Amino acid sequence: MEADYDNIYLNKLPITAATGDSVMVPYALVESTWGERKILLKIIVFSPIYNTPLSFLSEIDHEVLQQTAIRLEKSLEDFLAETKVALCTDGGAPGFSYSVEDNNFVWRKLGGSLTVTYGSVILLRSPCLLSDVLQNSINVQSHLRSVVQLRNQILLELKEEHEELLEFQRQQEEDNRLYEIELITKCITILNEKKVVINQMKKQLADDDDEDLDGDNHHPGQQHRRDELGDGGMEGRSTGTNPMASTATGQDVESVVSRKSSSVIDFSDSDAFDSPLHEQEELEHNLPKRTKFQLPTTAAGTPRSSTSTSSTAAGRVPVVDADPSEAYNRDTEELLQNM
To answer: Which residues have a Cβ under 8 Å from the Cβ of 317 and sit 6 or more positions away?
Structure first.
């Protein structure tokens, strides 16, 4: 069965000589093996009284330690911890003394003027244990060396991993800084583009407002002229004195007037404005010509030409009597009336 070297301790402790004369020997080697129920002790005492080292075997049961803990009013865990410190500290634990008295190995705790016995075991003589103790010491040292090498290797790996993590952290910090710069640059670019678009929209709105103001400044005169022409046409159509006097000639005149009004209202058209002379010629072309044998009269006995003339005057359309046939017809009618 392979020994558990983690629970084996070898220490050099100062002890009092076995004669009890308080003569301090140079040292005593104590090897302690800590088990679950017992503590095994190998003690080699080097004394000037003996020519050879004395070897002893002993063991401490946990039940004995528990009774001692109860007597000292301590818990078993605390008492075991203090006992381990006393037996496993090289050179002796501070505040403890060790002695060999009447084939007993005793360790005491010094507390001021009081000295309290913490433990005592019976020593059993054994053949020379020096070789066994030294072999165990070598094995423990080899085990500790392998443990130290393993721990050093683990530590080296941890250091390398730590360096890698530090490098990764630095790289992440650099990447984050670059990402922040890129993000800020993109945000600034987007904001500038939006600012340019907003300025263009503001400028376009201002231009549209200026165009609306210019249009309002030019259109009122045109609208006023349209209103006057429209009112004139309405008055011309509504001021007929005799309903029976409306003849084909008056209707033709009104049609001409309406065409003239419509041409005047379409002020924004690109067609050339018709001159009054052209309209007069068109009017003369539309009016029927009368001969001297035609004597049309109205119910009131007034000539149709007078009604037409009054209707034309009421419609505010200037008609020039430039046709010789019409003048001849008027003279003929006046002559017949005088007869």
So the answer is: 236, 253, 256, 257, 260
For residues 98 and 13, the answer to whether their CB atoms sit within 8 Å is yes
pLDDT band of residue 270 (cuts 50, 70, 90) is: very low
Residues 134-162 have pLDDT tens digits of 887 888 888 888 989 999 999 999 999 99
Residue numbers of the domain that contains 123: 5-128
Q: Which residues contact 96 (CB under 8 A, 6 or more apart)?
A: 86, 107, 108, 109, 110, 118
- In this structure, is the dihedral angle defined by the CA atoms of residues 94, 100, 101 and 107, taken in order, positive or negative? positive
CA atoms within 13 A on the CB side of 77: 0
Among candidate residues 128, 144, 178, the one where a domain is terminated: 128
- Residue 166, classified by CB atoms within 10 Å of its CB into exposed (0-12), middle (13-18) or buried (19+), is exposed
Encode 196-265 in three state secondary structure: HHHHHHHHHHHHHHHHHHHHHHHHHHHHHHHHHHHHHHHHHHHCCCCHHHCCHHHHHHHHHHHHHHHHHH
pTM: 0.44
The three-state secondary structure class of 55 is strand
Q: Give the residues across from 206 on adjacent strands.
A: none
Give the full edge-to-edge strand order of the sheet including 114-122: 15-16, 96-101, 104-111, 114-122
Tokens representing 331 are 């003279």
User: Has residue 154 been placed in a domain?
Assistant: no
CA 331 to chain centre: 102
* Residue 74 forms part of a structural domain: yes
Q: 148: which 2 tokens?
A: 């130290």
Nearest to 223, CA basis, from 261, 263, 265, 259: 265
Residue 9 in 3-state DSSP?
strand
Is 163 among the domain residues?
A: no
Write the pLDDT tens digit of every residue in 30-54. Answer: 888 888 888 888 888 887 776 778 8
CATH number at residue 43: 2.170.210.10
Of the candidates 294, 296, 286, 304, the residue with the CA atom closest to the CA atom of residue 242: 304
Determine the Cα–Cα distance for residues 9 and 317; give it in Å rounded to an integer.
140
